[in-house]
Amino acid sequence: MELQRGLSQFDLTNIIVGAIVGADIYIASALTAGLVGPFSIVLWVVAGLFAATIAMVFAYCSYYVPRVGGPFAYVSEAFDDFYGFLTGWSMWIAELLALPVFAIAFTNYLQALIPLTPAAEVAVRALFIASLTLVNIVGVRAAGKVNDALTLIKLSPLLLLIVAGLGVFIVRPETFVANYTPLLPLGLENASHALVLIFWAYAGFEMGTLPAGEVQDPQKAIPRAITSGMLIVSVFYLLTNFVLFGLVNWTLLDQSTVPLVVAGTALFGSAGALIMTVGALFSVSGSDESGMLGSARLAYAMAIDGLFPRAFARVHPRYGTPYVVLIVQGAIAFVLSNVGNLSGLISFAVLNLAFSFLLTCFALIVLRSDGDVKLRGQHILPLAGIAICLFLLFSTTTFDKVIGLLVILTGIPIYLYYSPKEDIYHLKDLFLSEEAVLRRRLEAKETYLANLLGIIRTVYRRFRRSDSRKLPGR
């Protein structure tokens, strides 16, 4: 039975926005301040354009291959399971690296609130990862209800920062002019590496692309939803960073691991620092919870395809969640959170993302069908995406390139060992069905700006209804 196309363009836009915006904004700005100074604001625009291009490639791939697994599914369909595995393998590594990043960020922001000894920092990271692993094992539906209640807590500090910061810009523009002068104090030598770190903040669409078979009028809705969704995210990111670099000199941001706390302090003193810290703690927790589930889902999809250890496809008898892979991911994340640093982990994550994105762009060239559908830009987008991915790969550090190549090559013996294994068909059919994909995506509650858009839309509709009822009496 074919599913009805029940998702509108607005629904798809909401999903895209919710999949991207998370805690990244609390982290990335300070990392680039010492590389390019206030010129970071320009790179946020460029990174947004890069991400939008690749997001469109993913959207079109999901139209031709409407099943879960993301790039793993797209590349497998276009070429074969070997290339699909390498794509999914590198994607899983990239998503896995986000978990220790958020554990480190959570500890940094907690440190701004409560002084921690080195031993206490390790304990906080362990407790942070263990608690989120447990939440995902018990079930994301219950966690989603909590996330709904906390959405405003996560988003309000950033909206407050934007509104108050723009107020300062209007009243005292000289403050912003001084902090933005010179715009490029350090030259362009580190611009490409800074762009890599900023691009990471826009990532997320690769885990949130819905099967296009559920979208009304997909030929028009998909590109429009991607365009509008990425525009909303870009405006939100740009306003936040415009205010951040305008309120605080880049030299101070470079010295801080908690840039939003520094900006909050500049606006409201200690109260502002507290507000931003609390917002960051909630936001980082929510993002890591969502990311942990996304990476586990990808590993699970590969396991039921016979390409990962069979244990990764083991589902908890009571809670119905892939608990084995969640526990394994948690253990790896804890180790990395204590041996890695934010910039290095993010850069290595982007290298793996860029590799999986590169293969996905090649996949669209094979998958596209000029006779059946006419999706705008499906000829030029994969070529542009290939150029962007090659640029990102080239812009990572030499260390990242060497280790990244070794990690990707490590996937080959893993594939050779597991590829002869038989598919777990009953699990695969259940997991990959469009009904299951749709249900899981709609149950995802880590939506941030998407929830706000839903509220605005509801209010707008009620006003329209109210006006329509008054018209006959005029």
Automatic annotation (TrEMBL):
The chain crosses the membrane at residues 12-34, 41-65, 85-110, 122-143, 149-171, 183-205, 225-248, 260-284, 320-339, 345-367, 379-396, 402-418. It is a multi-pass membrane protein. Its main location: membrane. It holds the Pfam family AA_permease_2. Keywords: Cell membrane, Membrane, Transmembrane, Transmembrane helix. InterPro entries: AA/rel_permease1, APC_superfamily. GO terms for cellular component: plasma membrane. It is found in: Cell membrane. It comes from the Archaea. One of its GO terms (molecular function) is transmembrane transporter activity. PANTHER family: AMINO ACID TRANSPORTER-RELATED (PTHR42770), MEMBRANE PROTEIN (PTHR42770:SF7). This is Amino acid permease. It comes from Methanoculleus bourgensis (strain ATCC 43281 / DSM 3045 / OCM 15 / MS2).
